[in-house]
Amino acid sequence: MRCPLCSFNSTRVVDSRLSEPGDAVRRRRECAGCGGRFTTYERGEAASLGVRKRDGRREEFDRQKLLGGLLRGVTKRPVSVPELEAIADGIEAEIRRAGGETDAERVGELALGGLAALDRVAAIRFASVYRNFDSVDDFEAELEAISKAPDPSEAESNIGVSALAPQRGATPPRDAVRRGHAE
Q: Which residues, in sequence order, are CB contacts of 157 under 8 Å at separation 6+?
């Protein structure tokens, strides 16, 4: 490791520990040349996640793109960013469980299911863009489908849709989106 202070080529590790939240190793180093101390962090490189598009192309999974779409759906709705982060975390975990690659359609369905569990109006907004409605009939059919789904705020024992997103105020689990619930 080259010293960032004097560029000397030899350093030694003085202290090593797991950093918070536990996804990196924090190492305190000392330069053999100037005696200066500095900190480095080591993180494992995450496996690339992929999304298969309708035309057969493969794109790298883009969490920010997903969050952008979710945010557009919840504009002026009582949904917090941490709730959307929980949906994105769950979708990312689902892609990992699927072997690191899934269809773009599956990502959209999981996002729609997660939004429906949080706010049905936001889900309809998201669906109108995601499904690219061609007519009012398409919009009405989606509205009816979301309206028929159980409301997680009304049923405490509802496992289906409510498993996709945390109850308000609760700490979201890392795998908030369960396989198969949003289909």
A: none
φ/ψ of 175, rounded to 5, equals -110, 60
Rounded Cα gap, residues 151 and 162, in angstroms:
8
3 state DSSP class of 13: strand
pTM higher than 0.85 for the full model? Answer: no
Q: How many C-alpha atoms does 57 have within 13 Å on its Cβ side? A: 5
Q: How far apart are CA 83 and CA 165, in angstroms?
A: 7
Report pLDDT digits (tens) over 123-147.
888 888 878 788 888 888 888 887 7
For tokens 């794109």, name the residue: 59
Q: What are phi and psi of 40, to 5 degrees?
A: -125, 155
